[in-house]
Amino acid sequence: MELSVAYNGDLNFIEKLSNYKSVVNVFGTITNSTVGGGRNPDGLTTITKSDIEEAVQKSHENNIEFNYLMNSSCMGNREFTHDTYMKIIECLDWLDSIGVDWVTIANPYIIDICKNRHPRIKVSLSSFAMVESVQRAKFYDEIGVDEISVRENINRNFKLLKEMQSNVECKIQVIANQTCLFQCPYQFYHDNVMSHSSQKNEFLNSHIIDYCILKCIYKKFNKPEEIIKSRWIRPEDIKEYESIGIKKFKITDRVKSSEWLLRAVKSYEEKKYIGNLADILNIVQIQNKRSNGNIVSIESSKVSDNLKKIRKMIKNFMMLDVKISNKKLEGFIGHFKNLDCNSISCDKCGYCKKIANEVIEFSNKEAICKALNEIKKLSNDIVVNR
Fold it and tell me: Who's near 93: CB < 8 A, 6+ residues apart?
């Protein structure tokens, strides 16, 4: 088993990761860049080019490879202008000069540029490329990517994952602890929202309100079965993926503290976790507070209404706490081994709802209700009062 782990800007974190044999690389990027990445920088640690250079050096000192993120799903066609093209070239040249091992990319055009100019650098295909079929995996394999992060929607489709890995030369990587809604209707749009928000000068002196996250969090906590439907993987079930040829797993998220990430890494390497599974899943809850680095400030925002709404949103998210009994989930994954969830209505199946009733507990239901009401008001306000 191999693990690829989110880098949150804490150099000491990289050193601590060296204690885990399964960790082969960390992934991260600068706060704002020409191409952009997969996260809105608000709330992330401020990371500069010099910070990345130090992180690459620290990673190599600890026999860990560094994966730099250039994985925006959309650049508004600016990649085809001469000025932006030259900035992409400049970035790739810089990455090569500092010894970056991997680059994560979603844009096929930028993949071609990277492979042509710097064949030494390995390319990891972002999940933003929406690989959910054997044919699409083969396409990217043929253009030379070295690994493919499949979209989480297919994480429990064992037949498809096995067929996919057996038909490509590159590695298939699965995201282990993400909790996006299964077949989320906001998925394509949200990828673009996050991509543009992470691009340099795209939203100068302003901060977006993540409408998609509001909708996502509300749905998951209002209908807990959506948390179960989400395609996360229990540490104990890693062996099920290894048995079909899937050997590499990705641990998110860059917004998490070093302590949080190390707990997740330890759990997946040991293939066991005793207690609340939500402690290692990327779910918004009070234990997820950041603890390191300089956080991208929203104090400088000139859009005061946006600033107030962002603060309110964060406050309400921090109230959402959930307990998921990992012990009670033993054998849970077996249901999906011969089932195609895309071919049956969840209402007809009912499995995830049944499981949710058995394993999910909200420690403070009053706080949950209050937070959900505030989130609903905020999302409605965004629609009618812009």
Answer: 117, 118
Which domain covers residue 212, as residue numbers? 2-384
Q: What radius of gyration do the chain's Cα atoms show?
A: 20
Beta strands in the chain (DSSP E): 2-6, 23-28, 65-70, 102-105, 122-125, 147-149, 171-175, 248-251, 323-324, 360-361
Query: Using CA atoms, how far apart are residues 376 and 373, in angstroms rounded to an integer?
Result: 5
Q: Which amino acid is at 326?
A: N
Q: Does 291 have pLDDT greater than 50? A: no
Please answer whether residues 291 and 256 qualify as being in contact, where contact means their C-beta atoms are separated by less than 8 angstroms.
no
Q: What CATH number should be reported for the domain holding residue 334? A: 3.20.20.70
What is the domain count for the chain? 1
What is the C-alpha to C-alpha distance for residues 318 and 285, in angstroms, rounded to an integer? 6
- Which pLDDT tens digit goes with each residue over 236-255? 999 999 999 999 999 999 98
Q: Longest Cα pair distance anywhere in the chain, in angstroms?
A: 57
Token pair listed for 143: 């253009």
User: Residue holding tokens 């009733």?
Assistant: 357
| Of residues 269, 259, 273, the one with CA closest to residue 16 | 259
Q: What digits encode the pLDDT tens for the residues 104-126?
A: 999 999 999 999 999 999 999 99
Residues 6 or more apart in contact with residue 83 via CB below 8 angstroms: none
